Description:
It is a single chain. With 460 residues, the chain is an alpha/beta fold. It has a single domain, classed as 3-Layer(aba) Sandwich (Alkaline Phosphatase, subunit A), CATH 3.40.720.10. The protein is built from 13 helices and 14 strands. It has an eight-stranded mixed beta sheet, with helices on both faces. A two-stranded antiparallel ribbon has the order 2-3. Strands 4-5 form a two-stranded parallel sheet. A hairpin with a 5-residue loop joins strand 2 (49-51) and strand 3. Helix 2 (82-90) packs antiparallel against helix 3 (107-118).
Amino acid sequence: MSALSSVDCIVVLMLENRSLDHMLGYLYAAEGNVSPTGQPFEGLTGNESNPDASGNAVPVFQIEPTTSNAYLMPGADPGEGYMATNSQLYGSTKNPAEGATAPMTGFVSDFAYTIGWESKESGWSIVPGTTANDIMGCFTPQALPVLSGLARGYAVCDHWFGSAPTETLPNRAFAGCGTSQGHMDDKTRTFTAPSIFGSMTQHGVDWAIYGYEAEPLTKETFTDIASEPASRFGLFSDFTAAASAGTLPAYVFLEPSWGATGNSQHPNYDVSLGEQLIHDVYYALSGGPQWDKTLLIVTYDEHGGCYDHVPPPWGATPPDSAAGEFSFDFTRFGPRVPTVLVSPLIEAGTVFRVPDGSTPFDHTSILKTLENRFGVPTLTARDAAAPDVSGVLTLTTPRTDDPLAGVTVPTSDASPPATDQPSHLQEVLADLISRHQPAGVPKPELRTREDYERYTRPRF
Length: 460
């Protein structure tokens, strides 16, 4: 708490569907996976591989800025549900034996299966030339200079895991209320458990949720904030204005743009647009009067089927008493996701993880950090057991340097295929908004991405 007391504003930017190895695995490869402060980093050595259908080893490879379609890699949307994740980690869609260490050898075979069925069904886009081996591609720091620059310039968490080995909405639910209420796929789109937002309201702590250019999905996800005033919700332009004015609340949750031409970094959308978003968030905060007392957490909701070599640990605390869908008991974390902690109170070159044998970081560590800083009670057994990130704040005098000085945000001259199609989360958001339609007023017919974007524009 002594370190956290120096922070008055916690900002979370949660992006989409990338693993740690895929985005930051080569972060300290040139230094032998040791940071400048002498801390070990569990990154890639270049010797990692996965077998293909014939048993041949497919090695991990570097995605450079000059790699063909670099910022659209891995070229298709990998499998990301519970069974697909089991396949990637254990080589089988079935539940693994309790406590079994995942060999992490099913990524190529599962991606081959996924692009096989996606190529036969409408609504899925695949970059021409994509093969199953592309799932082993991982970005170099030169390809992602913004994310990598912040990770090296502040702190990277190399043992931050998804809260459950499955897709987006259950993991975002864990980040918001410490449980998915037993749900393990995106078919369930709202959660009735008390959320951190509702709890902060009850305890007099201010917060805000900002969508990028549309109504925030999070606003519609948690039912206990349905009647919150419109002033708690806004767009990215509202966020930047508040940051400039020094009026950001205690907790800020940021969403990217969900569409195929947006900046969420969901495969196979343009990753460089997400680099621009991270850049813009960082400079909005660092250029504002609240910067010295701000902590920015950049993370991803789930691994999205992208390659990672570290087996997710067991020993997670179940948030609820009953087992969930697929008979999953929530004692196993999801794969690692990239998480970068940014604050002028963090030493450059920090690799931040809990001591061996401790409960690792997952998305409920965001909740625990908020709870410990602002005196809000825990929501479930999961966030009660989670560690907070206060230990990363080791400096007493805020830094004045800029690790991104001179960094040029990358751009891509390639466009995702089928950009006229709505994304999955655009469809989810439109469905949730349509539930507020007055009786007798039908939901308009939505077909294209533009249709969905017009429909989900905020009505604040």
